[in-house]
Amino acid sequence: MSGEVGGIGSAVRPRRTTGTRRVGALVVAMALGLVLAGCGEDREEVTVGLITKQETNPFWVTLREVAEDTAEEEDVRLLTATGRSDVDDESQVRAIQEMVEQGATGILIAPADSEAVVPAIESARRAGVAVVALDTPTEPGSAVDALFATDNERAGELVGQYARARMAQQGLTPRIAMLDLAPGITSGELRRQGFLAGFGLAEGAAEVVGSADTEGDREKGRAVMAQLLAETPDINVVYTVNEPAAFGAVAALREAGVDMADVVVVSVDGGCEAIKDGVRPGDIDATAQQYPENMAREGVRALAAAARGGEVPSGYLDTGVELITGTPVDGVASRDVAFGVRNCWGG
Q: What is 76-89 written as a DSSP string?
């Protein structure tokens, strides 16, 4: 059984089909949806909240849908909310407050700003609500009970190692453009740090000829890549914080007449669109595949168990990351495109 509750903004969540399908219709702006639990007879229904960043990126859509499916299996009433963008922390703060008012005993949140959401999280915890961060750590990390996430620094390190090896293989001097997320979002900062470490560079290295924030958005990725190319036409390595930004960068490279064989593009996410339409044809040379299904599934299960008298989740759960490429290089462990397709999400 499913239904909806009123919330912030206005949207109607289309009814989803069930089964093994991973991605369904998108919701608009900020909405609070309600998934009522199934017909379990032995467990009392508990209420858990899920707050994501936005739903133009299939990563967040997949995370929500797996959480909804898991909630049905676990007799959980799931309240869901999403913002308008990766930096919409104000909507997240309001969602936390509404979920506490609606009786959530636990909340899963992917913070849009690692610091800005902390006061609302701390208020919820003082009210007895367990809070687990998904994907993006809070600052400080102790603001939440637990973190279920990709090792974002490791993800960046993997693509940095790959890009460095490709440059060495081709005998080229790297001229790197970095398309980052936004200030204050720890996951993006960790990926940047990891990329630089994997490439063997420090912040401020001369090899980095330009960097800009994209907010993880395709069109902003295209715009900032076009600007960087206008300033430095000989860019030959492009790091992007996620695959929407990578597709935007690829579009700008093509518009500028760049031969894609002359540039190495690396990213993080591992969604089906990117694996099939980016990595397989070689426009995206490698991506670090992460697994939102694990974050959602384990998060709902952990908070449901805690609400029924189990231990409140604590510490860090690494939900996995693998480097996916169609052009492997010596010395950098990777999986092939077939593996990436079997394990991708969002399509």
A: EEEEEEE-SSTT-H
192 and 331 both lie in a single domain:
yes
Answer yes or no: do 183 and 326 share one domain: yes
Q: Residue 281: what residue type?
A: P
pTM of this prediction exceeds 0.90: no
Residue 198 confidence (pLDDT) above 60: yes
Could you write out the DSSP letters of every residue in 63-131?
HHHHHHHHHHHTTEEEEEEE-SSTT-HHHHHHHHHHHHHTT-SEEEE--SSTTTTHHHHHHHHHTT-EE
Task: Judge if 85 and 158 occupy the same domain.
Answer: no
Instruction: Residue 219: give the domain boundaries.
Output: 152-290+322-343
Buried b / exposed e along 66-93 (16+ C-beta atoms within 10 A): bbbbbbbebbbbbbbbbbbbbbbbbbbb
Q: Which residues sit opposite 210 in a β-bridge?
A: 177
Whether the Cβ atoms of residue 292 and residue 121 lie closer than 8 Å to each other: no
Q: pLDDT digits over 140-170, tens only?
A: 999 999 999 999 999 999 999 999 999 999 9
Output the domain CATH number for residue 272.
Answer: 3.40.50.2300
Number of domains in the chain: 2
For the cut 70, the answer to whether the pLDDT of residue 28 exceeds it is no
176, 137: one domain: no
Asked if 304 and 74 touch (Cβ cutoff 8 Å), the reply is: yes
User: Minimum mean pLDDT among 33-42, 97-106, 124-133, 149-158: which range?
Assistant: 33-42
Q: For residue 80, what are the contacts with CB-CB under 8 A and spacing of at least 6?
A: 31, 32, 33, 34, 35, 49, 50, 51, 52, 64, 67, 68
Domain match, 59 and 80 both: yes
Tens of pLDDT, residue by residue over 302-315, are: 999 999 999 999 99
> Are both 223 and 79 inside the same structural domain?
no
Same domain, 205 and 270: yes
Q: CA-CA distance, 261 to 254, in Å (whole number)? A: 11
